[in-house]
Amino acid sequence: MPGIQEIASTVEKGKIKLIEGIVQEALDAGENANAILEEGMIAAMGVIGMKFQKNEVFVPELLIAAKTMKKGLEVLRPHLVSGSVGKKGKFIIGTVAGDKHDIGKNLVALMIESAGFEVIDLGVDVPAGRFVDALRENPDCRLIGASALLTTTMGALKSIVEAIHDAGYKGRVKVMVGGAPVTQDFADLIGADGYSPDAGSAADKALELIAS
Ligand code: B12
Predict the structure, then answer these.
(1) Which atom of ligand 1 is nearest to the CA of 176?
(2) Which residue CA neighbors atom 66 of ligand 1 most closely?
(3) Does 211 sit in the ligand 1 pocket, CB within 6 Å?
(4) From start to end of 78-210, where are the E strands?
(5) Is the alpha carbon torsion for 143, 86, 133, 125 positive or negative?
(6) 114 and 203 Cβ atoms separated by less than 8 Å
């Protein structure tokens, strides 16, 4: 049976046609879905990111690895999401303006959905005003999540917090921020209500914020 290492190497090498079969085989053999995700797929994206930094791979390789991971995630999804979707309320999520990275955002959405929220995904490159519009369209929504992966787009997280406060939602709607360059200190600095470093803890944080 294919092990987690093989899944990691399939994502890293961008073998898009093989990934679904390999993930399915691992699941059938009893491999844990969270381990496949974290130790296989997420770890592989970390490795490819480091290679990119060292100029050992370039944007096309990043892109194909990302697409491979997305395909693998489709197989994994039903094993990660529980049956109680929507019971905890709505959660609006998007990647900030100027930023097209969506793997981390999609994982957070998946874990938040698993925790019982109905997720409204605004996609990538989302201007601050679009988050406010989405809140107006969903007046029962109490939580927003925004993702930024580039140091050059982190500032857009601040614009989102400000736009939400300016629109009169301060205190009523909690804003969670995240993404590789984001830290708790940065989240505090821009007045966000919550931060978490990964998708699993993002779901815990969301539950904590609606309880507070
Ligand atoms: C895949 C990838 C791409 C793909 C994205 C495909 C896609 N559909 O997402 C493509 C090829 C398109 C791409 C493009 C670019 N990329 Co890129 N990319 C990456 C890479 C390798 C992996 C990102 C990823 O998916 N990680 C895996 C996920 C699971 O982790 P994550 O995103 O961090 O998310 C987790 C947490 O951060 C957190 N989280 C994320 N969002 C949120 C939100 C909330 C609310 C919360 C609570 C938590 C949370 O939970 C997630 C799950 O655990 C990273 C390197 C790296 N290791 O991060 C570079 C990286 C982010 N990219 C980089 C760069 C420079 C670029 C480009 C500018 C390259 C170029 N010259 O064109 C462009 C920018 C395009 C744009 N406008 O956005 C740099 C950024 C450097 C910087 N400091 O700003 C990095 C760090 C690579 C590097 N080492 O230099 N990239």
Answers:
(1) 45
(2) 150
(3) no
(4) 90-95, 118-121, 143-147, 174-178, 194-195
(5) positive
(6) yes
C-alpha torsion 49→50→55→58, nearest 10: -20
The size of the chain, in residues, is 212
**Residue 135 to residue 129: CA distance in whole angstroms:** 10
User: Ligand 1: which atom is nearest the Cα of residue 124?
Assistant: 78
Give the whole-angstrom CA distance, residue 177 versus residue 93.
10
Per-residue pLDDT of the chain (212 residues; tens, 9 = 90+): 668 999 999 999 999 999 999 999 999 999 999 899 889 998 998 898 889 889 999 989 988 998 999 899 899 988 887 666 667 899 999 999 999 999 999 989 988 887 889 999 999 999 999 999 999 999 999 999 999 999 999 999 999 999 999 999 999 999 999 999 999 999 999 999 999 998 888 989 999 999 87
